[in-house]
Design goal:
Keywords: Signal. InterPro entries: DUF2782. It holds the Pfam family DUF2782. This is DUF2782 domain-containing protein. With 90 residues, the protein is an alpha+beta fold. It has one domain: Single Sheet (S-adenosyl-L-methionine-dependent methyltransferases). The protein is 24% helix and 33% strand. The chain is built from two helices and five strands, in the order H-E-E-E-E-E-H. A five-stranded antiparallel sheet has the order 1-2-3-4-5, with no helix packed on it. The protein is elongated. The two termini are 43 Å apart.
Length: 90
Amino acid sequence: MQRSRILPPLILGLCLGVIAPPVVAQQPEITVRQDDARTIKEYRVNGKLYAIEIMPRDGSDYYLVDDDGDGNFEHSDSADLEVPDWVTGD
């Protein structure tokens, strides 16, 4: 009798685990623009611009990142461009 109570939830849990879609990180759409002095990469997800990579012909690359969606891009030297939660709605 005990086994019959445990079996249905166990089977249901296994089925849901198989049916549930995997969580996939969203890949950004990257727009590249070039001019004589630099290359600029704009990173967007769902049409929302969240980071800009600036690669000057002379000098070090740097990034402008909008961490909270307020439109103010802050300077960063780090190449860690994770998609912020405000872009994905998480």
